[in-house]
Amino acid sequence: MDGSRGGAGIAEEAQRPLDEITGAIVDSALKIHREIGPGLLVSVYEIILARDLARRGFRVERQVPVTFEFDGLRFDNALRIDLFVDRRVIVEIKSIDRLAPVHSKQVLTYLRLMKLPVGLLVNFDGETLREGLARIVNKLDTSAASRLRVNQRLSNSAPR
C-alpha cells in the first residue's frame, strides 16, 4: 500500500467536492491514455495515475486492503482497492479488451461495503478512454448527476 500524500492536508481534503476529485481523476486518466495509449499492465497505469494525482495535491493510496463484516462474519483483507483518492473516491483500473457489466457491479459492491458515494471504473485498453470510463454512484444525491454515471439508468428505471 502506498500512502503517498500530495500537498493536501486532511482538512483540505474534507472540503474538496466529489465532482472536483472525480474530475481530476478523469482528467489525469485522459492525459495518460493520450500520452501512453493502451496495452500496458494495470499496475503500470495504477502507478502513473497515482503519481499524477499526488502531484495535483490529492492523497492517493494504492492497493488498499478492505475488511468488512457481514451477518456476524468478519472478512479480513477481502478485497483491494486499486486507488483510493482523498479517502473518498475508489478508482478501479482495468486494461482489458472490453468492460463487462460485472466490472461496474464490482465497483458498486466496493462502494456499498465501504459506505462511499462514488467510484470510477477506468479501462485503459480501449481505442479511446471514453468507451472505458464510468462514474458509479451509491446513494448519491441526484443533484450530483454526471454523464459518466453508470447505474443512473438502473435507479431511474426501477419500479417504485
Structure description:
It is a single chain. By secondary structure, the chain is of the alpha+beta class. Helix content is 37%, strand content 26%. The protein has 5 helices and 5 strands, in the order αααβββαββα. Strands 1-2-3-4-5 form a 5-stranded mixed β-sheet, with helices on both faces. Strand 3, helix 4 (101-114) and strand 4 form a beta-alpha-beta unit. Residues 1-13 and 143-160 have low confidence and may be disordered.
Keyphrases for this structure?
160 residues; single chain; disordered C terminus; disordered N terminus; alpha+beta; 5 helices
Would you spell out the secondary-structure blueprint of this structure?
Layout: H1 10-15, H2 18-36, H3 42-55, E1 60-70, E2 73-85, E3 89-94, H4 101-114, E4 118-123, E5 133-137, H5 152-157
Parallel strand pairs: 3-4
Antiparallel strand pairs: 1-2, 2-3, 4-5
Helix pairs in contact: 2-3
